[in-house]
Structures are given as C-alpha cells and as structure tokens.
C-alpha cells in the first residue's frame, strides 16, 4: 500500500478548492480602489495594504478548511423501497469534525426520473456535531431509481473559500406500487367504510356455506341440516351448523393496453389502477377472501394464483411492480379464453380498463357479456378529470364553446357506457383516478353484503 505523495495531495486539494462569490465581491472592490488611486496617488499604498490583509485572511480561511483531513462525513439514509405516487423521505446524516461552525451547500445527485436539476440545500452545522437533514421526493414511475454521490461544499464564518466533499456511493432504490397507502385502509377503516356506506348484514339464500360445527337441535333450525349419524349416537336431534363461505375468489384484471398509458396527476391510468389494486387486495384478504391477479394486453402476464396465504401480499406487490403498459390494443378475446381456462370457480373479477368511445366498448361487449355469464364481472373505467374541469369553465369565444360542447359529448358517452353495460347485466364503476380506490372498495363491500358472488 503506497502513501500519497505531496504532489497528489496538492492536486486533490486543488480539485476540491473553490472561491466563493464573496471573494470576487471584495476583489472587485479592490479593482475599484486601484482605479481611484490612479487619480488619487496617496490612496495607492492604502489599497496595497488592504489587499495584503485580504490575502492573509483568505489564506487563513484556506488553511482552516484544508488542514483537517476528512473533516466532513455523510451518510444517505434511503427507504428500503419507494412508494409510487407518494412522498418518500430521504435523510442525510452529516457529521462535522471541525472545531468551528460551518455553512453547508449540499447537492444530492437525484435519479433522472425526478427531472430535478437544481436540487440544493443550504444548512449550518456546529463544530464536532452530527445533524440529520431530510427532504421528500415523489416518484411517479415504477422501476429502479439510481442516486449518485452527495456533493457538500463547506465554508467557514469568513466565507471566502469553500472545500468540496464528494460523499456517499451510488445507491439504487426500487419504486413499488403505493404500499404506504395500505395503512389508510386497515380493518378498522374498512369497517368504518362499511358503516358509512350503509351496508348491513343480511342472510344469503342459495349460496354455498362452510361447515362450522354440530350442535343440538333447537326450535327454528332447518330440519334439512339434521345430522342423522350424530343424532343416533347422541340419542337426540343434532344439526350441522354452517357459516357463510368467506374464502371467495377475487381476481384483479389489469389492462396493459394503450388506453391505460394516459397520464393523470403525474401517474398513468395503469399506475393508478396498480396502486388501487394493491390496496383492494389487502382489503380482500382482511375480509377473509382469496385474491389473485394478472395483467393482459396481447397476452397474459404477471399471474398470481388466487390464495389467502401469509405471503400473498408480497407476491402481489412483486407482481404489480413488474407490470408494464404498451401501445397495443388489448385483446379481450384472449382475456375471455384465459379466464375460461384458468378460473374454474365462480369469482368476482375486477377489470381495470378504459374505453375511449362507445365504438371501443361495443367491440369488446360480447366478450364482457360472455365473461359475466360464469363470473361476476365488475368493469372499472375512468372519467377524464381535465374534460370535467373544462365543462365547468365559462365560455366567451366561439372556440371555447365548441370545446365545451365536445367535452360534454365525451362525458355523455362515458355515462352511456355505464347504461350499456347495465343493460346486459354487467356491473361497472365510472370514477376519477383520485376516487378509484374508495369507489372500488365501496363496490366490493356492497357486492359482499348482497351475496352476489
């Protein structure tokens, strides 16, 4: 192991040496002073003296900062994974090993996905102390986010010179669907949603039941539930007691086609659907049902079998992380054949998709009706919030009137889609991206309460 030479040390110091604006302000002042001294001769010696003093102060400022080796250390604290569409906290833990208070100018090299090219922090830190500074970032694309190094420029109270420290190695954080919002929809929240929605428990007739226990017959019990073997053994009437079947199957079907690429509030419709699907999956599991999912476009991908196992949410999270959209039109015929082959038991199918026009819906309507024959299909598609806002604006010119009429026609077509689906017995939700999660959960609770699955 070779030690660094004095020349290497000088090069390293030169590479981290910067002059601050204050230095150039003073330097400009001396230039003015010398220009004036050209006309006022006695002022020249005074300017030279001041320049010498100024040079000494700058040298002292330089020595204070550069005589301490590794005077600043830093550690970037990143979350294990980012939550898509949410504010995620990033922390910088900085330690000052100097004896004096320092001013910090911090540039943290953020991933290119944020498109932030002027990120900077101005802080102060006392001598021999450690401070933690935090900032928040909001990712809007799933995938890997690469952080660069942290550039810290330090200066003393004199403020003429800065020393640059390049700290923290490159780091990678994966951006997953919005798992932070899961806390907003725990079991207590779901129960309050049920109460707010007006859902009440009702007895379901004609559906399957799960066996719970054998008990003594009491007046009012269904005589068809009498267990004759247990009755013979006990020498008294015994009946089978059943409870409503809880482990019902719920599948999330995510359309990866071109219509789901449309952006709203920084996220595509697909990402809104993925975030909502993650939360709905958690609600379904809390409701003791089984949940599965797959995405589709020209072919099926990201398949997760319908289960209620302990690590099901982890499988769903990983699968949703890998869902990607494309610019192709989705094949609903393939979707129908996949459902027929893969899903044998009657299930609730939550189809997250979008239709641009009535013609687009009519092209797929036969497949939706066929799927709905063997399963309970819930088609979830989107209102265009920007068009809704356009209809509320006041019109003054002829072009604005035309735009408003076109917007109202677009909204009318969306409402007609709901009526068209209802005419053929297909359930649907027409919602805005921000209300997607709560509307889907409410509909799921309503379906559960009515025993439609």
Note the main attributes of this structure:
453 residues; alpha/beta; Immunoglobulin-like; Rossmann fold; six-stranded mixed beta sheet; five-stranded antiparallel beta sheet; 38% helix
Question: How is this structure best described in words?
Answer:
This protein is an alpha/beta fold and 453 residues long. It has three domains: 15-176, Immunoglobulin-like; 179-201 and 246-450, von Willebrand factor, type A domain (Rossmann fold); 210-244, no CATH class. Helices cover 38% and strands 27% of the residues. Helix 2 (21-37) packs antiparallel against helix 3 and helix 4 (187-197) crosses helix 12 (436-450). The longest helix is centred in the last third of the chain and has 26 residues, at 398-423. It starts with 5 loop residues before the first helix and ends with a helix.
Please identify, by name, the CATH architecture of the largest domain: 3-Layer(aba) Sandwich
CATH class category name of the largest domain: Alpha Beta
Compute the gyration radius: what is it? 34 Å
Helix content: 25-40%
Low-pLDDT stretches are: 197-208
Task: Please indicate the count of domains.
Answer: 3
Number of helices: 12
**How would a crystallographer describe the biggest sheet?**
6 strands, mixed
Number of strands: 21
The CATH superfamily name of the largest domain is von Willebrand factor, type A domain
The general outline is elongated
Q: Tell me, rounded to a whole number, the average pLDDT.
A: 86
Question: Which fold name corresponds to the CATH topology of the largest domain?
Answer: Rossmann fold
Q: Return the structural class.
A: alpha/beta
In which order are the strands of the major sheet placed? 18-17-14-19-20-21
Provide the β-strand percentage band.
25-35%
């Amino acid at each position: 192991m070779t030690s660094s030479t004095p020349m290497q040390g000088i090069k390293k110091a030169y590479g981290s040496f910067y002059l601050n604006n204050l230095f150039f302000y003073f330097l400009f002042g001396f230039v003015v002073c010398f220009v004036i001294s050209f006309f006022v001769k006695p002022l020249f010696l005074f300017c030279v003296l001041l320049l010498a003093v100024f040079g000494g102060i700058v040298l002292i400022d330089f020595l204070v900062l550069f005589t301490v080796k590794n005077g600043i250390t830093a550690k970037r604290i990143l979350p294990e994974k980012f939550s898509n569409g949410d504010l995620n906290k990033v922390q910088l833990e900085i330690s000052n090993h100097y004896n004096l208070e320092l001013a910090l100018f911090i540039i943290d090299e953020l991933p290119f996905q944020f498109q932030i090219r002027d990120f900077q922090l101005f802080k102060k830190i006392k001598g021999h102390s450690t401070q933690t500074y935090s900032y928040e970032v909001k990712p809007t694309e799933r995938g890997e986010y690469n952080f660069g190094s942290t550039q810290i420029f330090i200066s003393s109270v004199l403020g003429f010179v800065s020393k640059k420290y390049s700290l923290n190695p490159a780091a990678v954080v994966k951006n997953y669907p919005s798992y932070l919002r899961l806390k907003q929809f725990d079991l207590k929240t779901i129960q309050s949603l049920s109460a707010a929605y007006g859902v009440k428990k009702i007895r379901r007739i004609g559906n399957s039941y799960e066996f719970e226990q054998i008990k003594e017959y009491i007046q009012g019990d269904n005589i068809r539930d009498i267990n004759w073997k247990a009755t013979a053994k006990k020498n008294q009437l015994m009946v089978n007691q059943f409870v409503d079947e809880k482990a019902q199957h719920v599948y999330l079907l995510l359309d990866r086609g071109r219509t789901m690429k449309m952006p709203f509030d920084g996220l595509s419709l697909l990402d809104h659907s993925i975030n909502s699907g993650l939360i709905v999956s958690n609600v379904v599991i809390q409701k003791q049902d089984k949940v599965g999912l797959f995405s589709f476009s020209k072919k099926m991908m990201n398949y997760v079998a319908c289960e209620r196992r302990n690590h099901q949410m982890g499988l769903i999270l990983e699968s949703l992380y890998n869902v990607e959209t494309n610019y192709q039109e989705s094949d609903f015929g393939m979707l129908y054949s996949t459902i027929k082959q893969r899903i044998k038991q009657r299930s609730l199918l939550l189809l997250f998709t979008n239709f641009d026009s009535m013609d687009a819906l009519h092209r797929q309507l036969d497949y939706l009706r066929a799927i709905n024959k063997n399963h309970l299909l819930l088609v979830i598609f989107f209102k265009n919030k920007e068009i809704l806002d356009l209809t509320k604006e006041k019109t003054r010119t002829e072009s604005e009137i035309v735009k408003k009429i076109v917007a109202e026609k677009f909204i009318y077509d969306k409402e007609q889609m709901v009526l068209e689906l209802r005419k053929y017995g297909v359930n649907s939700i027409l919602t805005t991206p921000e209300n997607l999660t709560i509307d889907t959960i409410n509909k799921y609770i309503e379906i559960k309460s009515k025993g439609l699955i």
